[in-house]
């Protein structure tokens, strides 16, 4: 007998010792596998275990509502752009210049013009239709001058805008406006251009063309462009507005005279192109007075050309709801 007793009884490989060792090896292998695959980890020292998000009793934190940005207004500070030839903004003039093309910025959007309430008109440009906006009160026209012919005289009498200055007379056209002395003054009659020079105005509205209907469109626009240059020399800081010719009745259009719808529409299109070229505003008052077929209603005029009072009021409403001013001029006010 062995001094250690029965060898068979105490052998490492005998009895239930082998299954226990096998289980120990398998457990160690499984533990090593878990560690190597990051499927199991112990918290770092001092780190509290994180509760399961699904059963957490912590209250849910709501994200704050986004702050609503204020509407862009022209009183925001101007941004001066570098005029350097290699600068990406070099196609825009500097904002500290007196150029009417100065570009203003609001909420990172550039604009040159605003409406009568000061709201930016981002996509408007010279010669385009003026966007409709809320009506202004007649104080808006207190710094305005309206010049023109007998139809402008009718507007002065019946349009209802009493805050503006009017320099208008029968038979005035783009040629004789500088020579015919038709405006009374303390020193005797003076021309419309002389009257215009006697006082500063921020807005100048021009209605001419019906007396020039026998001109060629090219000659008419040449004379009109020269008139615009003369007005700018007298009123360099003013916004200038070309008003479209007004419609005539169907009977007048078809009586064989040159006062017909086709000629008037052609003149208006020429005026729109002139406005784009000379950088003035084009105001379409034709549409505010014409019917669905483009004529002044037959009962709307005594001679087929000069409207009755209600159509002058429609014209005035059109001006109140289609306003545009150059932003740099408004900033100075």
Question: Could you give the topology of this structure?
Answer:
Blueprint: H1 7-10, H2 17-36, E1 104-106, E2 109-111, E3 113-114, E4 120-121, E5 144-148, H3 150-158, E6 165-168, E7 181-183, E8 190-191, H4 192-197, E9 203-207, H5 217-234, E10 239-243, H6 250-253, H7 261-278, E11 281-283, H8 286-289, H9 309-321, E12 325-326, H10 327-332
Parallel strand pairs: 5-6, 5-9, 9-10, 10-11
Antiparallel strand pairs: 1-2, 3-4, 3-12, 7-8
Helix pairs in contact: 3-9, 5-7
In short, what is this structure?
The protein has 333 residues and is an alpha/beta fold. It is built from ten helices and twelve strands.
Give an overview in words:
With 333 residues, this protein is an alpha/beta fold. The protein has a domain at 126-325: 3-Layer(aba) Sandwich (Rossmann fold). It contains 10 helices and 12 strands. It has helices spanning 7-10, 17-36, 150-158, 192-197, 217-234, 250-253, 261-278, 286-289, 309-321, 327-332, and strands at residues 104-106, 109-111, 113-114, 120-121, 144-148, 165-168, 181-183, 190-191, 203-207, 239-243, 281-283, 325-326. It has a 5-stranded parallel sheet with strand order 6-5-9-10-11. Strands 4-3-12 form a 3-stranded antiparallel sheet. It has a two-stranded antiparallel ribbon with strand order 1-2. Helix 3 packs across helix 9 (309-321). The longest helix has 20 residues, at 17-36. It starts with 6 loop residues before the first helix and ends with a helix. 29% of the residues are buried. The model is unreliable at 1-14, 51-56 and 69-101 (pLDDT under 50).
């Amino acid at each position: 007998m062995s001094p250690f007793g029965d060898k068979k009884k105490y052998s490492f490989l005998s009895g239930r010792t082998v299954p226990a060792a096998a289980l120990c090896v398998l457990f160690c292998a499984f533990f090593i596998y878990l560690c190597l695959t990051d499927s199991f980890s112990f918290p770092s020292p001092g780190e509290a275990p994180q509760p399961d998000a699904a059963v957490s009793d912590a209250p849910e934190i709501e994200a704050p509502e986004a702050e609503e940005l204020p509407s862009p207004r022209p009183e925001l500070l101007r941004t001066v752009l570098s005029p350097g030839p290699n600068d990406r903004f070099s196609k825009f003039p500097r904002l500290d210049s007196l150029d009417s093309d100065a570009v203003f910025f609001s909420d990172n959007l550039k604009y040159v013009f605003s409406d009568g309430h000061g709201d930016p008109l981002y996509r408007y440009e010279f010669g385009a239709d003026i966007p409709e906006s809320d009506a202004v009160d007649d104080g808006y026209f207190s710094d305005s001058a309206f010049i023109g012919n007998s139809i402008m005289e009718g507007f002065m009498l019946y349009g209802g805008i009493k805050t503006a200055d009017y320099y208008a007379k029968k038979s005035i056209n783009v040629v004789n406006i500088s020579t015919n002395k038709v405006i009374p003054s303390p020193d005797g009659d003076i021309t419309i251009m002389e009257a215009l020079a006697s006082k500063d105005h921020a807005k100048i509205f021009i209605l001419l063309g019906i007396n020039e209907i026998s001109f060629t469109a090219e000659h008419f626009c040449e004379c009109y462009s020269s008139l615009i240059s003369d007005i700018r020399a007298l009123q360099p800081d003013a916004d200038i507005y070309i008003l479209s010719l007004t419609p005539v009745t169907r009977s007048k259009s078809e009586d064989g005279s040159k006062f017909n719808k086709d000629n008037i529409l052609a003149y208006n299109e020429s005026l729109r192109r002139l406005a784009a070229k000379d950088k003035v505003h084009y105001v379409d008052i034709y549409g505010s007075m014409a019917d669905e077929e483009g004529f002044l209603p037959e009962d709307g005029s005594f001679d087929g050309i000069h409207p009755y009072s209600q159509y002058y009021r429609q014209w005035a409403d059109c001006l109140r709801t289609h306003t545009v001013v150059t932003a740099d001029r408004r900033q100075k006010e």
